[in-house]
Amino acid sequence: MVHIHRIKIGLTAVVILFACLTAMAQKQKKKRTTRERTPQRELVYDNVNYLAAIKSVQLYPIDQENALPVIELHSDGQLMLAFDDLRGDVRNFYFSMEHCDADWTPSRLSPLEYAEGFNEERIVSYAPSVNTLQAYTHYRVDFPTRNIKPKLAGNYLLKVYEDADKSRLILTRRFYVLAPLMMVSPQLVPSVNVAKRRSNQKMNLKLNTGGLTVNNPYQDVRVLVMQNQRPDIREWLTTPHFVNNNELTYNDNNTLDFGGGNEYRYFDLRSLRLASERMANIRLDSAVHVDLVADKNERAASYASVFDENGNFFVRNQDKSDADTESDYAWVSFSLEDVTTTEGKVYVVGAFNNYTLDASSEMTYDAAAETWRGTLLLKQGLYDYQYVHVGPSGTVDVSFASGNHFETNNTYQVLVYNRRPGTTWDELVGFAEINN
């Protein structure tokens, strides 16, 4: 009887222990799966990352890496959107699009008028990072898809958000749908202003309206010219200089006269094992830290031809086979030695941060070393970058540390918009690129 009693007590203890372990496991599992939802954000009709955890956003036509995201209407062309979420878990992200006018204000159209299908789809392609110090989840989607595609030409805003809740935005990106109805013929010529001949690049334009009826070209047609896809270096044209039947000419001496800038600075972050020529130091602890060689202010320097990517960046990895999921992130430290500019603010910018002037790209001035310093978290790859100065009065100078040279290799994008009689929205009817 004693043995039976002890066995009963032993069985009871095992059952209690099992129940406790099960409860603990369920509690831990619940703790692991509990996560904070993406907060609600106010929509901005621009290229915006709404969370600091969203990094390395890329949007470009498939097979045309880092080209302006333009696709032709009713074609088989697709855009590739890819990004990393440094929160490292798996989220239910959805995307949709919205038609906008030429100035990126919402057009007065319903989704039924500009979108085929449901205008919302879940991003189902994702993968966790592999053997990286910085954990992240890599997402990718190619669109248009069978369920969501544009049916009107014009500007579109791509929105990505969590749990099909459009207020919980994580990123927005601009893209363009082209109906090639006008022929665009740009030409780069020396500046008409003699004082700017050595620094500027002047563009003249001709548009052939083709079979498109344009009743009032002074009101219905608008032209946007950008340098290197930059939102901060662009100019709008609303009035042609000459109109001759179906040809519009834009060659006013006071328009499209751009500062040539200089070739972009660059660094190679493809390997974290071997330092490239622009890397002064690599440190490894709980994260990767990279110090770049200090930059000089070259505003007064002569032009030197250096190959660059016109401000773009490329995710690449020399150490691993899959750059998308096996590339690590590094805290990259920039420094600009400059004794001439100590007031105002200095930012380090490029396509990798959409040339955004905010707290994340702002540098601080080290008076003792007479150097501007800043640090950014970047994924392994190849990067072009530039320094921008904002004076105390708010004046933005994109060439304060590099100067302007007419020899600089730049790419210009020309976008032509037309508003047809009786409609309330702008169509993108012409597009061209030109290199100097």
How would you portray this structure in words?
With 436 residues, the chain is mostly beta strands. It is built from 4 helices and 32 strands. Strands 1, 3, 5, 7, 11 and 12 form a 6-stranded mixed β-sheet that branches. The termini are far apart.
Describe, in short, the structure shown:
With 436 residues, the protein is mostly beta strands. 10% of the residues lie in helices and 41% in strands.
For the structure shown, list the relevant keywords:
single chain, 436 residues, mainly beta, Immunoglobulin-like, 3 domains, six-stranded mixed beta sheet, 4 helices, 10% helix, disordered N terminus
Strand portion, in percent? 35-45%
Strand count, sense and barrel status of the largest sheet are: 6 strands, mixed
Mean pLDDT over the full residue set: 91
Task: Give the overall form.
Answer: globular
Q: What would you call the quaternary organization? A: single chain
Determine the number of helices (DSSP H or I, runs of at least 4 residues): 4
Number of strands: 32
Poorly predicted runs of 5 or more residues:
1-33
Helix content: 10-25%
Distance between the termini: 100 Å
The secondary-structure class comes to mainly beta
CATH top level of the largest domain? Mainly Beta
- The name CATH uses for the topology of the largest domain is Immunoglobulin-like
CATH-level-2 architecture of the largest domain: Sandwich
Number of domains: 3
